[in-house]
Design brief:
single chain; mainly alpha; two-stranded antiparallel ribbon
Length: 155
Amino acid sequence: MEHKREIYSEVWGDRVILKELFRACLLGIFLTMLFYSLSKNIISKKEGLDAELVNGYALIFGVFGCLISGLISTKKFKPKRIVQEQYEIENIEDILKSAGISLEEEIKNLSEVDKDIIKELENLKLYALLSLIPKDSKNYKEEYKEIFEEMKNGN
């Protein structure tokens, strides 16, 4: 059995299969217009309702149809990407540079940030960043440098 290779295209900075994107868009248009049209038809049969109110309610049902199409599309067209959270410990300066911040700015920011942010960095095991915190900072812990050295040495 031959495996069919899909062709990916870039849309808004993400890689997608155009055929699946097209199908999701068609589903969205179909369900949105179906819910809008059916609800407008049903609601307009009620006597005493203003035409603007009927259109407003129909619009709400159209949005509901759009949301349902989004849910269906997320179930039917699963993400194809594989996210790998991996970086070279030695390249922390390159990572910061690509983020548009200098090493000195990051050190200053890390020494002044809130404890919650430090806790988040600990949870993410970003000890390469945490080891940059200067000793005179309220956020400094000697263990950051120790853990970072162990990681660098492969332990």
